[in-house]
Amino acid sequence: MELHNNTGHPRRWAILGVLVISLLVVVLDNTILNVALRTLADPVHGLGASQGELEWSINSYTLVFAGLLFTFGVLGDRAGRKRFLMIGLVLFGLASLLSAYAQSPGQLIAARALMGVGGAAIMPVTLSIISNVFDPRERGRAIGVWAGAVGLAVAIGPILGGALLEHFWWGSVFLINVPVVAAGVVLVALLVPESRDPRPGRIDVLGVLLSVVGLVALSYGIIDGGEHGFDRPVAWGSILVGIAVLAWFVQHERRSDHPSLDVRLFKVPRFAAPVAIVGLVFFAAMGSMFFGSFYLQLVRDYSPLQTGLLFLPFAGAQLVFAPRSAAMVRRYGGKAVATVGLALTVVSLGAFVFIGASTPIWIVLLVFLIQGAGMANIMPPATESIMSALPREKAGVGSAVSNTIRQVAGALGVAVLGSVLSAVYRSDIGDALTGLPTQAQDAANESISGAYAAAGQLGPAAPGLISAANDAFVTAMHWAAGLSAVIAALGIIVVLRWMPGKEETSVAPAAPVAEPELAGTA
Q1: Residue 192 gets which letter from DSSP?
Q2: Domain residues for 267?
Q3: Do 110 and 95 lie in a common domain?
Q4: Which residues in 168-277 belong to E strands, given as ranges?
Q5: Measured between alpha carbons, how far apart are the two ends of the chain, in Å?
Q6: What is the number of domains present in the chain?
Q7: CA distance 37 to 15
Q8: 355, 479: one domain
């Protein structure tokens, strides 16, 4: 009965599989790199990268990715989504090769920036192609599979990265992308249909430029503040410039007769509320994964591979619950499902406040499981609500807004929660550094990684420094975890106040079907 008059593409499920492969390589790359940072810092087996260079090897990707997401979503709708997907995959594969064979930290940072260009072309069109090839009645289920793939990639990354580093050189964590990209390009060419906005109108050149400048300036300020502290004029100046330019962008879009983003959409609860939820959740979640990884590798002394395996409960919960969330939304409504998901996420983040250096590891695994289950029931209903608020031909805009908010919020979460972590750590470890050599004091005061490196040169004084560093880091983690839980809890307020309930969401997905000619373009 459900498939009568289905406006979806005949090969839609095979197409979804291809899109998941394309998405996996983008998400996988970020989590793989996290476990390789120690190796990259090694002057013998890596590139001898400094702490700042390591941060920029991650952040150069994030900066370019966040800055171009919205623009590429708009251009993909106009020029062709399949075309943009293939260009993005080729760029991503080329940048992966350049990263694998980089001879210096600077070359790696530049190659990662190019990877960000490819990722920005891939990410928004995966969602917009899903919206285009699936009947609105099946779209929620398809987006659940898409969201589950994100969760899978988040967990596979550290495991795969740890396994590669145990057997091969550091470049293998980038080289692994190349065969996946090659397979993706072939499958996209064979299976994915071309689609675009049939009535694109004139391109909003000023709007596109303002969005790029505003997002890059804002992201740069956030990243710089996280690296050097938010008390520097460069960080605040960049953030204020970014906010001012984005405000100009909003004002321009309101007055334009051919806007690249119709800002009036943010007056529609079905669009605005889930966008806000996505931002709040990824602010909290990315920050928590940042300090969680350090906690497992340093305080608990797990290897990169073991650390990756310990994130499996998070991924398992995503895989189990995300594809089923669409059925839960149909039964209980998006508001109820998102509220429960956010509550579970808040509980899991808040639990880190009570985790110490000797907490049984099964408790940590349980916390990851709860967080995975919570986020699996937030992202699909939120993403489906965003996509169903727009007609199919504008899917790229909705996807790009959602992904841009997620990237900027994730960068902000790592930067802000990382700054809280650093500030509390430094104030707590200060007394323990008295009497140590100046070089050891400087290294230990910078981060827990620096303390462990310094301890290797101290002989009998090493155990005392390591113990003090662990205690200071755990205290700092408690503060950062408490803040992340509060941020996620704000999402519950947004859901209860603005997100539509069961009656509205149950009929909403049918609205975008109003364009009959789209079935032919799919």
Answers
A1: P
A2: 12-192+260-513
A3: yes
A4: none
A5: 22
A6: 2
A7: 35
A8: yes
- Largest interatomic CA distance in the chain: 78
- Shared domain for 248 and 270, answered yes or no, is no
- Closest by Cα among 241, 250, 278, 261 to 386: 278
17, part of any domain: yes
Same domain, 229 and 80: no
Smallest Cα–Cα separation from 108: which of 22, 36, 182?
36
Same domain, 182 and 312: yes
Closest CA to 326 of 382, 275, 373: 382
Nearest to 54 by CA among 73, 34, 72: 34
What are the backbone dihedrals phi and psi of residue 230, each rounded to the nearest 5 degrees, phi first? -90, 15
User: What is the CATH classification number for the domain harbouring 402?
Assistant: 1.20.1250.20
Q: What is the Rg, in whole angstroms, of the alpha carbon atoms belonging to the chain?
A: 23
Taking the model in full, what pTM does it have?
0.74
Cβ contacts of 93 within 8 Å, gap of 6 or more? 118, 177, 178, 181, 182, 185
pLDDT in tens, 392-441: 666 666 666 777 777 777 767 777 787 788 778 888 887 777 767 777 77
Tokens read off for 400: 């790009």
* 96-105, 106-115, 209-218, 238-247: least confident range: 209-218
Domain membership of residue 2 (yes or no) is no
